[in-house]
Design goal:
This protein has 260 residues and is of the alpha+beta class. 17% of the residues lie in helices and 42% in strands. The protein has three domains: 49 residues, no CATH class; 114 residues, Immunoglobulin-like, CATH 2.60.40; 96 residues, Immunoglobulin-like (Sandwich), CATH 2.60.40.10. The chain is built from four helices and 16 strands. Strands 1, 3, 6, 9, 11, 12, 15 and 16 form an eight-stranded mixed sheet that branches. It is flat and about 60 Å long. The two termini are 24 Å apart. One 2-acetamido-2-deoxy-beta-D-glucopyranose binds next to helix 1 and strand 1. One 2-acetamido-2-deoxy-beta-D-glucopyranose binds next to helix 1 and strand 16. This is Ig-like domain-containing protein. It comes from Loxostege sticticalis.
């Protein structure tokens, strides 16, 4: 059992740790050891200063045919657990995440977040900016969208085709991994883009449907709320979003960290 647990943790840590090492080097501090022992990050997590880093930014520019869809992806690592927002030509694309205002993010939490934006009606030269925020820290990355005109096909037709085309949901915001103190609460986001109505459900770390549990439950937004986190809660939580055209699934690895 112990071995299995260490293996699972090691798997989740490798990617996170790579991000932190890059960060520590940039900061000119050697906060982290170079090995990948599972217990390295949880121990050092406390001494790590608050930070945010766009560890995998969207491309500087993309070229798409007018009226077609594109997805931009932004990956953010931060302490406390970060969130991300998208701006289109400087204006917010969606309302600010209210849930995270209600259930405040634990100051010693640490997470890697993936945020996507579905670009549906871009004009040539539109700028999409990913804004990663963790506590008071913020970092941005901008993509310029260029639309390629296709002379053979009038714009109207492409647009019509877009609206008729059935599309499965896209999960646009989730944590890849999160470290969170035992005894505290966490909200695992599962935000999505769907044409038409969609259903959200979560499987817990034992692959069981989250339902009728008072400690772990799905919020109306589709996010998962875990209260009074225990060591046994460690593992992957899978969010699935379904509409009549298909589904999308993502996994969040929760690492309950010991308080020190
Ligand atoms: C958790 O899910 C991710 C993404 O599907 C996967 O890469 C990872 O191996 C899983 N980890 C465990 C411990 O099952
Ligand atoms: C963020 O992290 C990436 C590597 O993960 C690095 O290339 C980049 O320079 C970092 N950015 C800042 C501003 O620290």
């Amino acid at each position: 059992m112990i071995n299995l647990v260490s293996l699972l943790v090691a798997a989740a840590l490798v990617s996170l740790q790579c991000g932190f090492e890059a960060y520590a080097q940039i900061e000119g501090k050697n906060d982290l050891d170079n090995n990948l022992q599972p217990n390295v990050v949880p121990v050092k997590r406390r001494t790590l200063r608050p930070f945010v880093n766009i560890s995998d930014p969207p491309p500087k520019s993309v070229r798409i045919a007018p009226g077609t869809r594109a997805e931009l992806v932004c990956e953010v690592i931060g302490k406390p657990a970060p969130n991300a927002q998208w701006l289109k030509n400087g204006q917010p694309l969606s309302d600010y995440d209210e849930v995270n205002e209600i259930i405040s993010i634990h100051p010693s939490s640490l997470a890697r977040l993936t945020s996507k934006v579905v670009v549906t009606a871009a004009a040539n030269g539109d700028e999409y900016t990913c804004v990663g925020t963790a506590g008071l820290k913020q970092q941005m990355a901008t993509t310029t969208v260029f639309t390629v005109e296709d002379e053979d096909e009038p714009n109207l037709f492409t647009l019509e085709a877009l609206f008729r085309k059935p599309t499965k949901p896209v999960i646009t915001e989730y944590y890849n991994e999160i470290f969170q103190d035992i005894g505290s609460s966490a909200v695992l986001p599962c935000r999505y883009h769907s044409v038409g109505k969609a259903q959200v459900f979560w499987l817990d770390s034992r692959d069981e449907l989250v339902y009728g549990n008072s400690r772990i439950r799905v919020l109306p937004t589709g996010d998962l709320l875990l209260t009074n986190i225990r060591w046994e809660d460690m593992g992957n939580y899978t969010c699935t979003v379904k509409n009549k055209y298909g589904k999308d699934s993502v996994a969040t690895f929760l690492y309950p960290a010991k308080k020190q």
